[in-house]
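As a point of orientation, let us examine one representative protein, giving the amino acid sequence and backbone structure tokens.
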Amino acid sequence: MQLEKIASFSIDHIKLKPGLYVSRKDVVGNSVVTTFDIRVTSPNDEPVMNTAEIHAFEHLGATFLRSHPLYKDKIVYFGPMGCRTGFYLLMSGDYTSAEIISLVGEMFSFVADYEGPIPGAAPKDCGNYLDMSLPMAKFYSRKYLSEVIANLDDSRLNYPE
């Protein structure tokens, strides 16, 4: 079998800045599924997030998104990138990055301000419930809000050429 280079590996990660990008759009049946690249750290330029903060953010972010009054029925998946520089959000519908700035900002604000037990952080609910850091999830949330959401322009909404 001949392996083809997948689209996400064709993005110039040296030029890529933290931002909110459309990674791909796929037609599934009669619907479009839009995959967003929520890039939190600068690839190959600054330290990646550790698993504990990614895991805490994943639990909080997925719970927030699947509870959102306007978008909960549009959320297909939310989870971390293997490279630990951000998250993927898959939504049912044909969206642009600009159309979900408010939703992503709400999610990061929710995590930044969250107090209390992390949803699903119990042995019966999660296979690695001890590997979570709410303080670091909050740190990266505040960083993303101040450095990315507050400064969104085309260079942080569209992949670099």
